Amino acid sequence: MPSLTQSEYQYALEYLRNDPKIKSDPNIVDVGIGSGLRQFLRQDSSRELCICFYVKKKQNSKSKKSFQIKKSKTISVPLNKSGSMNLSLPCDVVEVNTVKPSGRFISENGNIKVTTGSVIKWEENRSSGTTENWGVITVAHGLKNLANNQDVEILASSQPGSGTEAFEGTVIVQSDDDENIGGNHLIDAAIIDISVENIRANGLHEPRLNLPFVEEIVPLSNLRNLDDKKGDSHPDGQSFAFTLGAYLGDSSIISDLGTLADLFHASSHLDRGFEEGRSGSIWRIDNRPAFMQIGADSATFNEGYGQSLETIFNWCNFALRRIRRTFVNGSLKYVRSF
């Protein structure tokens, strides 16, 4: 199986998206590069790297209404150092309905509630000394451009015992803010500050069994070239498995959110696994946090779309440096996912 670098992936995706026949076909929603899937979401060993076409409706091979997706397609990819290589890749077709953000928005009583599956901490240098600050990461689209410094109720994506409970926090920065105050429109994320009392009261500072206190996020470079594409998530107190599909790179498949960086597709093993309200929950690969759920197929919720958690975490570092002058560089840690 050929291994591509980040720039080679991005070029290949740009090459495909700018193909006039693909670009002009209203049936094609987007295109990605990843592993092919067989029935029952089994990985196809004969198509470990393939071009994945996301279409509104699979077409009969005799149809003349749309671009004919053949069994394979050759693309030319420039190499980092010099020259280029021709890749002849098999093609896969995935039928998707309208892809929508899947965040939890406003509860019945009018309070803003968002789902989260991530705890972070960082340090700040104050006049009284160095302080340890805690927070959670969630999706910005669930806040609907809510003003910063406003209190919200957070729903932990998985709570032991009695189920999901809500607790309070304060929005401090969102990715759709102006860049000067930490925004980045290629990201769909927000940081919510949580008091240490709320962290302790809700058990968010305790590590999960057999996991270190500070978890290691799966690097983006590893996610694109995984041998085992199986993962799991734990929203709403239940666990479900998924199989990772294609890497979509900078994609606008979730049209309501514009273009988002480092987006991946996954297929759920559980009916409606990526159900509405679960954006902000974490997808794990090899028992390590890897993605944050952003959107899903709005009809079945069996096809989900997640953003690389490393990409989101890097934005968190950038945003905290912009909004907190007292932020201690290098102090941000990803504590745990749940």
Layout of helices and strands:
Elements lengths: L5 H12 L2 H4 L4 E7 L15 E6 L16 E7 L5 E12 L3 E3 L11 E4 L1 E9 L2 E10 L12 E6 L9 E9 L15 E5 L1 H6 L18 H4 L6 E4 L6 E12 L8 E9 L13 E4 L2 E10 L5 E6 H15 L9 E5 L1
Q: Count of helices? A: 5
Number of domains: 2
The rounded distance between the terminal residues' Cα atoms is: 33 Å
H and E order: HHEEEEEEEEEEEHHEEEEEEHE
What does this structure look like?
With 338 residues, the protein is mainly beta. The protein folds into two domains: 6-95, no CATH class; 98-338, Thrombin, subunit H, CATH 2.40.10. Helices cover 12% and strands 38% of the residues. It is built from five helices and 18 strands. The chain has helices spanning 6-17, 20-23, 196-201, 220-223, 309-323, and strands at 28-34, 50-55, 72-78, 84-95, 99-101, 113-116, 118-126, 129-138, 151-156, 166-174, 190-194, 230-233, 240-251, 260-268, 282-285, 288-297, 303-308, 333-337. The two termini are 33 Å apart.
Using brief descriptors, characterize the structure shown.
mainly beta; single chain; Thrombin, subunit H; 6-stranded antiparallel barrel; 7-stranded mixed sheet; 2 domains; globular; 338 residues
